[in-house]
Amino acid sequence: MSENRRAEGQLEQSPWDKASGAFIAWRSGDPTAVDELVATMTPVLWHVVRAYGHDREAAEDVIQATWVGFVRLHQTIEDPKAVASWLITSARRGAAAHARTARRAAPVQDETLHAVLPDEESAEALAVRGDEAARLWGAVASVDERCRKLLRVVAFMDRPDYHSLSQDLDMPVGSIGPTRARCLAKVRTALTKGGGR
């Protein structure tokens, strides 16, 4: 409303009346009337959306989505006096939906996340362990066949049956321990020399 009309003592139009007037003018073919509608209702929508606790960026997204929805669906508004209510309701629904989505996607502190995730080794630790295993088995491969067989059994069995082992390796039971010690010494020497690579 102009300053002249206010000065003449006429009451200023409410935002709802301005919105419905601009909506009627826009529908009647005045393309600039939509600018007046946006200028009138955006501050109202801003307050509605910010009441949901959204930051500036989120509020702008919701308000933009409200205006896009309005442009798409304005033909469904039969009563021009309902345009303000339509926009406010749409903004409220958009703000509520955005708030629900934001709660689901809320960032979590590392300490909180660590407490609920299973313990797993880092990629670095796995790589180091893999490298060490490759070096060890390379060193085992460098010793003679009899040592390799003995060390494989010892490595994968908690308590090997020495009698069965004696028969499999064609070795007296009493020499299994000393032979194992000599084989381990050979592997140790191969690892020291870098023969595991």
Automatic annotation (TrEMBL):
Organism whose genome encodes this protein: Nocardioides baculatus
Residue ranges occupied by any RNA polymerase sigma-70 region domain in the UniProt entry: 38-104
Ranges in coiled-coil conformation: none
Entry-linked InterPro entries: RNA_pol_sigma-70-like, RNA_pol_sigma-70_dom, RNA_pol_sigma70_r2, RNA_pol_sigma_r2, WH-like_DNA-bd_sf
UniProt keywords, alphabetically: DNA-binding, Sigma factor, Transcription, Transcription regulation
Official protein name in the record: Sigma-70 family RNA polymerase sigma factor
